[in-house]
Amino acid sequence: MKRGGLSRAAGALAAAVAFASAAPACRSDAGAPAPAPPPTSEAAAPRPPVDQALPGELAEGVEQAFGLPIPRRMKVRARFSDAVFAVGEIPAERVANYVRTRVLAGNVETGPAKTIFSRATVKSAPQRMIRVEVVSRAHISELVVRDETRPPPERGLTVEERWRRNGLTPDGKVLDPTRLE
Question: Which position has the higher pLDDT, 155 or 106?
Fold first, then answer.
């Protein structure tokens, strides 16, 4: 029993010595000046409210073209079942960057006066296939959004019936040539 009592006492003594040696490191001097705050970084900088655009960024408007929000500073000039035309006094480069952040394009062609996003889908509405053109005309930009989504095939039709619905025979000839005039 004495051995167990001694080892307990030795363990308690060792713990007391470790605590006493660590205690001065935890104390703070009351007369020492407080450390300076870390320099302000971009991460700690205040961010603008959610409803404000960053400098050079275009804000989304309320109108949409097949799921793609039209920039607030652009006006829709024409709307058809398969195309939407909008114009605005905004540099074409800014409009193209606006579109670039909102679509996933299969191909992007960039030129001095036109940027084309083909085989594109809107990130927020991926079920539609669209083509977006940003055209620079003098001091305005034109945004053209075309819906290229193919309708789903009709089920249960034979090959002959599919050809007929498109006005052709199975060998590719026109059923009614007067209909083309």
Answer: 106
